[in-house]
Write a structure and sequence with these properties.
alpha/beta, Rossmann fold, 2 domains, 6-stranded mixed sheet, 12% strand
């Protein structure tokens, strides 16, 4: 788990640990995850049934390593690896089948359903746009806005502390449908979002990186990334294959964003706040399928904030940043000004404002260099400005 908000999004959409922990109950009956509501992807289920029927068990596990969790949760005894599952089950003990109330014919179908559920979010259509339909400010005055945000766009959210920036992020995170205190509505690709999509636990389209990152699993960074890669059915291990390359890319990116470097062996509970956010930004860009990323005051994270935003937009994410940082505010495509709990203005970044960024960057670099000198125990000698 990560932060309270992103941790729930990440661990349920990408964390097979929580998902598979419910596979068995005390009565001894096998309870397999229910098919996601409203999906109706029978074709995908047929594909998995065919794959399970024709692949040897060894090849099946190589292609879908997450299937190992299915076998472990049902305590399936060792099977012949060079046979398809149905044939391999022929040698399974009748006592084991009776213990779980299963027949040999049921197991391949249940595995197909398991693989479908665990990879369902991989087949979802990409989000092309997000629309925010205005609600009301704290005094009940209508916002009267309709903001369309397309993929690859960065929106900054600015306003005084307590003005309602986090409330706007919260409305987007829950895909509000007029049922929050602001009365705002959020549309995806111009369409109303149903309750199934809003409240499902896996495959969420919105990820929020909050200001505080709290890991509760004492894993090494490499193990943490491998778990996420496995849950996406990518590769086999952190040491090789597609997963190994993806994990290394994600790790290298996180280290490039963080101020202080860390290793794959570093425990996630030992990471600083900045390192944690750097890791999750890289994870979000390379592994997460969430199309919309919400970031709360990244300037306080101790990471290369502009590179972090650039990374997410290159991944065609819709990025909304709550910020007090002039560089981030003016570096966005548009900025939403919040006042008294409502959307007060929506401003497109002008050509003059973009040109002013060069001067602001010089000042920012001076401040960053000064901070580095202070952190290293040096003496500060400021140049003439």
């Amino acid at each position: 788990m990560i932060s309270v908000r992103y941790g729930l999004i990440f661990c349920f959409s990408a964390g097979y640990v929580l998902y598979c922990a419910t596979a068995l109950v005390g009565s001894g009956e096998a309870i397999l995850p229910a098919k996601p509501r409203g999906t109706g992807k029978a074709g995908k289920m047929t594909d998995f049934a065919s794959i399970i029927e024709t692949r040897t068990l060894r090849r099946l596990l190589e292609e879908y390593p997450i299937a190992r969790d299915f076998f472990q949760n049902l305590n399936i005894p060792p099977l012949e690896q060079e046979l398809p599952l149905a044939e391999a089950l022929g040698g399974a003990s009748d006592d084991w089948l009776l213990e779980f109330g299963l027949t040999r014919g049921e197991i391949p179908a249940q595995l197909a359903e398991f693989l479908h559920n665990m990879t369902a979010s991989e087949t979802e259509r990409p989000v092309k746009s997000l629309t925010i339909l205005g609600g009301y400010d704290k005094t009940g005055i209508p916002e009267g806005v309709e903001l369309l945000i397309e993929s690859g766009t960065v929106i900054s959210i600015v306003g005084p502390t307590g003005s309602g920036k986090s409330r706007l992020l919260g409305d987007i995170e829950c895909l509000a449908q007029g049922d929050t205190p602001t009365g705002r509505r959020v549309l995806i690709d111009g369409e109303t979002v149903g309750e199934d999509e809003r409240f499902r636990l896996e495959g969420k389209i919105v990820a929020q990186l909050s200001q505080n990152m709290n890991f509760v699993m004492d894993l090494a960074v490499g193990e943490f990334l491998e778990m996420h890669a496995r849950s996406r059915a990518v590769g086999t291990s952190a040491s090789g294959g597609a997963a190994g390359a993806l994990i290394q890319t994600c790790f290298d990116c996180a280290n490039s964003l963080a101020g202080e470097k860390f290793t794959l062996e570093t425990k996630v509970t030992q990471l600083s706040g900045g390192q944690s956010r750097a890791l999750m930004i890289a994870d979000c860009a390379y592994m997460s399928r969430s199309a919309i990323v919400l970031i709360d005051e990244i300037e306080n994270a101790g990471v290369d904030r502009r590179e972090a935003i650039s990374l997410l937009t290159r991944a065609e994410k819709i990025v909304l940043i709550s910020t007090h940082d002039p560089l981030l505010a003016l570096g966005a495509d548009k900025r939403v000004v919040i006042k008294n709990g409502g959307i007060y203005k929506i401003l497109e970044t002008s050509r003059e404002e973009k040109e002013s960024l060069a001067s602001i960057e010089k000042i920012d670099k001076l401040l960053m260099d000064t901070r580095a000198v202070l952190r290293s125990g040096g003496r500060v000698v400021l140049p003439e400005i």
